[in-house]
Amino acid sequence: MRLVIIGAGFAGMYAALSAARLRDLEGRSSDDLEIVLVAPEPTLVVRPRLYEPKPETLTAPLQEVLKAIDVVYMQGSIETVDTASRVVEGVTADGMRGRLSYDRLIVATGSRLFRPAIPGLAEHAFSVDQLDDAIALDRHLHSLADRPASNGRNTVVVAGGGFTGIEAATEMPARLRAILGQDAKPRVVIVERGNAIAPDMGAGPRPVIEEALQKLGVEVRLGAGVAALDQSGVMLSDGDRIESATVIWAAGIRAAPLTAQIPAERDNFGRLIVDRDLRVPSEPSVFATGDAAQATCDDLGNYALMSCQHATRMGAFAGHNAAADLLRIPTKPYHQKAYVTCLDLGEAGAIFTRGWDRKVEMVGAEAKKTKQEINTVWIYPPPADRAAALASADPERVTDL
Question: What residue stretches are annotated with the FAD/NAD(P)-binding domain (predicted)?
């Protein structure tokens, strides 16, 4: 029997760990159940940290961990999924096309930044969506030091006032001063189409966020969007223009395109709608997890968000259930009642909330310490030790906050 996992992000990594854990608990070998993880690189990109400087350092190796738990790593990119034949096809690392059959498939392909057809967006906007995007932005920021001082050089426009946009914007004053000199006076502007900053965070945390933005000197333009970009600035939907050499697009994400090849129902974000086992109802051999899946978290109507916090636990349940299905033992319905949010606010600290109603528990330096622990310890892969790695993937305990 073969279980194939597509993707090496948080969900894919924990799917592999959890499936291997169950196989081990059941006393089965890799000859009984082969687990194959397919991804372009054997690394975890620590995507929640890509707003930080030195993004090229924000990866963690996976090959030794996978080897320790007897998971086969296959380097390549899956391009097609044939659910009728239970075959995936793609391109290997050496450019050759290949086919791989499966008995169960876990789609853990993550998400991508949504880029609408705004004039100049593709040519002139940066992002912190993928590793290459973050590296390109970092190189661009360092290149600003070679330009003559001007308002446009010193101005960064962040399009999108959600979680990613706020973290990118609040980190930017310190990043620019480190590059341009401590006497530089960077201008950072968040442009948000809605009528409030951090629209998904709710009214409770918003005053803390607004105070932090004010403290850092980050401007907020509400009720306007980016209408067009060129190499020297942006035109807003209200007719105003902002001269800026750096525009960061942070206005929403969608499930990766491969999910569209699964003949199943999807939500407005392109996520496959799954049952409580994280199985695609119309395709019993296919499970979806992480940002590729719309999953119910509890009995109160809450759905998993497109975040690493949900992806890790969803991945553990998907791996367990796909393996359990093949081994003919009971599955474990996914649930994730605990939910916290820790939003980095740059030099102004951070904010930590608990629950779907975002009750504020920590702010400032205390929350910043927790954020740093999350970013540098909690979300990294387990050690390449078989017992420790397998123990980390108990679906009932992953991200149990």
Answer: 2-315
